[in-house]
Amino acid sequence: AQKVTQAQTEISVVEKEDVTLDCVYETRDTTYYLFWYKQPPSGELVFLIRRNSFDEQNEISGRYSWNFQKSTSSFNFTITASQVVDSAVYFCALSEANTGNQFYFGTGTSLTVIP
Amino acid sequence: DGGITQSPKYLFRKEGQNVTLSCEQNLNHDAMYWYRQDPGQGLRLIYYSQIVNDFQKGDIAEGYSVSREKKESFPLTVTSAQKNPTAFYLCASSIVRQPNQPQHFGDGTRLSIL
Question: Does A45 touch chain B (CB under 8 A)?
Fold first, then answer.
């Protein structure tokens, strides 16, 4: 079974629109960590954020915000006022404390921001 | 400037040939990883190393080999036993192999078959 599901394969928005990328995870561990990465066309995955399972506070960093809800096993990522430079593939990942420290990546969401 | 350097950026393999992908990091990280990325799929772990002279198989290690003779270097060899090697290969590192440590990535090597 997929531990991390990113149901949105591709999203297109017009510049300045807000967009939310969904991430649903599955785990039985009580201690786990969630990550978001950005993969621009250059190929490198850029680390954006980490949340641990004990901290459900939402986080905002500039135009980026993250909504972590344990009740729905979701860790969604919102970009406000999108820009062309936001065009990339975004990956959500899960790491569990009790299963060998392996990262489980979702299949990614390809975001295109149209000028 | 600290980071992870992968080379070459593009690589072509002939039938029956082994090829080696380079990964070097100057972040002083203990743990290093190799992932394979195929279109429409997430990243799949090939091998990882937690310390020099030690490495472990990931989910898809068949047809691949690695070495970790130096902390900074973790080369990946794609052997002729790997029948479908065409993919994008990403190297990563983290301070240690712990679940709370983010992995930092290089910019990848794209391998194709001639």
Answer: yes
Contacts of B69 (CB under 8 A, 6+ apart): B52, B53
Q: How far apart are CA A79 and CA A66, in angstroms?
A: 9
Contact between residue B76 and residue B46 where contact means Cβ atoms under 8 Å apart = yes
Contacts of A26 in chain B (CB under 8 A): none
Query: Residue B65 in contact with residue B77, Cβ under 8 Å?
Result: yes
Contact B99 A101 (CB under 8 A): yes
Q: How confident is the model at residue A93 (pLDDT cuts 50, 70, 90)?
A: very high
- Closest residue, chain A, to B42 (C-alpha): A107
Min Cα–Cα distance to chain B from A32, Å: 7
CB distance B112 to B8 below 8 Å: no
Interface contact A96-B99, CB threshold 8 A: yes
**DSSP conformation letters of chain B:** ---EEEE-SEEEE-TT--EEEEEEE-S--SEEEEEEE-TTS-EEEEEEEEETTEEEE-TT-TTEEE--SBTTB--EEE-TT-S---EEEEEEEESSS-TTSPPEE---EEEEE-
| Contact between A106 and A91 (Cβ < 8 Å) | yes
| pLDDT (tens digit per residue) in B52-107 | 999 999 999 999 999 999 999 999 999 988 889 999 999 999 988 788 888 999 99
